[in-house]
Specification:
This protein is of the alpha+beta class. The protein has one domain: Alpha-Beta Plaits, CATH 3.30.70. Helix content is about 20%, strand content about 30%. It contains five helices and nine strands, in the order ββααβββαβααβββ. A hairpin with a 6-residue loop joins β8 and β9. α1 crosses α3. The longest helix has 12 residues.
Length: about 250
C-alpha cells in the first residue's frame, strides 16, 4: 500500500464534525471529511461528485503541535438585504500543526499529490478563512503502512514551540523525546477507542451526509528535522515583470 502525507499548519484551523445552528465547534485534530474535502477541491471535483474512492482511503493524523482553542463571537449581515444574521460562536485551533496520512490505491494517491501541487480550488484548513501557512505536500506517495509512515515522518512543530517545551522542562533537565498522539482509522473487526461521524458520503450543500468512523488512538516519538520547513505562503504566485522607473521630467527653467 502507498501513503500520502500532508502537512496541515496555519494560524487558524477549524475541523468540525458536529456543528449545529449557531455553534460551530472544532475537533482537536483534522477530520477525515475535512481532509478529503481539501483534496477533492484540489482536484476540482464538484460537490455532487462520487466520493466512494476517497472515502475508501485509510486515514490517520499525528498531532505535532496541538495549538490552543480560540472562540470567535461572530456577527454577519445578509449581502443582499443587509439584514442581521443570527449571532454565532465559532471555535478555531490557533497555531496548530498536524501530519495527516492517507493509505490506499497508489494511482489515486499520485493523482491527489499532483492536484496538491496545482490545485483547481484554493485549499484551506477546514474553513475558507483558514489558509495554510506552509506547503501541504510532504513529498510524493511512499511505500509503507500508514502507521509506520506517520511514526517515521519528521516532527513538523514550530521552533518556538520546541523552545517552549524545553523551557517548561527546566534549564537543568535533559529534554527527552517528545511523545505525539496519533489517531488512526480503526481496522475492521477491532474495537475503536471512540467514533466520529466524519466519513463523507456527499458534500452536496442541499443534503450533506456523513457516516460513522471508528478511531483508534496510539502514540509516536517525535523525530526532529535537521532544518525546519520554510514559510512559503506565496510559492504559487507568478511574479510581475520588472519595469524600470519612469524617466523624471526635465527641470523647469522659468
Amino acid at each position: 500500500m502507498s501513503v500520502l502525507l500532508l502537512r496541515l499548519a496555519g494560524p487558524l484551523q477549524a475541523w468540525g464534525s458536529a456543528a449545529r445552528f449557531a455553534r460551530r465547534s472544532t475537533e482537536n485534530a483534522p477530520t477525515k471529511s475535512g481532509v478529503l474535502g481539501l483534496l477533492a477541491a484540489a482536484q476540482g471535483r464538484p460537490r455532487q461528485a462520487d466520493l466512494s474512492d476517497l472515502a475508501a482511503l485509510r486515514f490517520g493524523v499525528r498531532i505535532d503541535q496541538p495549538g490552543s482553542r480560540l472562540r470567535d463571537f461572530h456577527t454577519a449581515h445578509h449581502a443582499d438585504s443587509g439584514k442581521a444574521m443570527p449571532l454565532s460562536e465559532r471555535f478555531y485551533l490557533a497555531d496548530a500543526v498536524f501530519v495527516a496520512g492517507l493509505e490506499g490505491d497508489p494511482r489515486l494517491l499520485h493523482q491527489l499529490y499532483e492536484a496538491l501541487l496545482c490545485p483547481r480550488f484554493l485549499p484551506y484548513l477546514g474553513r475558507r478563512s483558514c489558509p495554510p501557512s506552509q506547503r501541504l505536500d510532504m513529498g510524493p506517495p511512499q511505500e509503507a503502512p500508514l502507521e509506520e509512515a506517520l511514526h517515521r515522518a519528521e516532527w513538523q512543530a514550530s521552533d518556538w514551540y520546541v523552545l517552549q517545551l524545553q523551557h517548561t522542562a527546566g534549564h537543568d533537565a535533559t529534554p527527552g523525546p517528545e511523545v505525539l498522539d496519533v489517531l488512526l482509522d480503526c481496522p475492521p473487526g477491532d474495537v475503536p477507542d471512540f467514533s466520529l461521524r466524519d466519513t463523507p458520503v456527499s458534500y452536496d450543500p442541499r443534503h450533506r451526509r456523513y457516516a460513522l468512523r471508528g478511531v483508534r488512538s496510539t502514540q509516536a516519538t517525535a523525530v526532529r528535522p535537521d532544518t525546519p520547513p520554510a514559510h512559503e505562503p506565496t510559492t504559487g504566485l507568478t511574479p510581475l515583470p520588472f519595469e524600470s522607473p519612469a524617466t523624471p521630467p526635465p527641470p523647469r527653467t522659468t
